[in-house]
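Translate structure to sequence.
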């Protein structure tokens, strides 16, 4: 077990390529696969704005993890730029969640204000990430660039999925509680990442985080399915 530092990246050769971190790639690919499965399942539901935004979320989120995994695997060839798509996809996916959840608020003016806040936050996060990429030497430590997506995600997910998820589960339908649970499930991953807690080279902080994230994504789908069923019942 290692705390406060990272194990040496696992290296291996395949088809003449010098590749890295197969464990991280596998974890990212599993999340990508589940995300696209859920996107397909959600596409078969009644296409409300809520459902559409979640469908786009699963697609963007999945693409982000696919390229995130490839960024680990191909780091010797792609370097830090190979991680850009994953970072920007993460921020985009959070914005889609905010667009899906906020319209359930009963006050139209509040909805309009919070959606504007989300748009501004999203734009500022994109600009901040671009500035970090341009001005910071990420070759020395690219984890600096991960701080912007992490802060953006924390703000967006806490107030939409945790806080509003709890409120909506009481006022609208219990199905929203799955979103609250998803945030609570994912929170430990921040501890493992920030404190660099790894159990072994083949099961490091990224692999541990992937487990929490995968379960969280499953709860996202359960929440979407439950709320979509509730919306479908209202149309009858």
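Result:
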């Amino acid at each position: 077990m290692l705390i406060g530092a990272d194990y040496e990246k696992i290296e291996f050769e395949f088809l003449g390529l010098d590749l890295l971190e197969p464990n991280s790639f596998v974890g990212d690919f599993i999340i990508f696969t589940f995300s696209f499965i859920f996107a397909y399942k959600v596409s078969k539901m009644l296409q409300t704005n809520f459902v559409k935004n979640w469908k786009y979320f699963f697609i963007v989120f999945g693409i982000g993890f696919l390229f995130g995994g490839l960024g680990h695997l191909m780091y010797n060839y792609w370097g830090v730029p190979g991680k850009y798509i994953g970072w920007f996809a993460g921020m985009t996916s959070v914005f889609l969640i905010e667009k899906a959840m906020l319209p359930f608020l009963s006050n139209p003016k509040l909805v309009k204000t919070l959606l504007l806040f989300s748009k501004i936050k999203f734009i500022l996060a994109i600009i901040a990430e671009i500035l970090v990429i341009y001005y910071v030497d990420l070759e020395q430590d690219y984890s600096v660039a991960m701080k912007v997506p992490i802060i953006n995600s924390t703000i967006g997910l806490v107030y939409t999925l945790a806080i509003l998820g709890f409120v909506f589960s009481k006022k609208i339908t219990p199905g929203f509680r799955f979103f609250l649970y998803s945030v609570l499930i994912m929170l430990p991953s921040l501890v493992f990442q920030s404190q660099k807690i790894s159990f072994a080279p083949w099961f490091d902080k990224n692999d541990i985080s992937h487990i929490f994230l995968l379960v969280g994504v499953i709860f996202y789908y359960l929440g979407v399915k439950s709320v979509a069923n509730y919306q479908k019942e209202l149309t009858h």
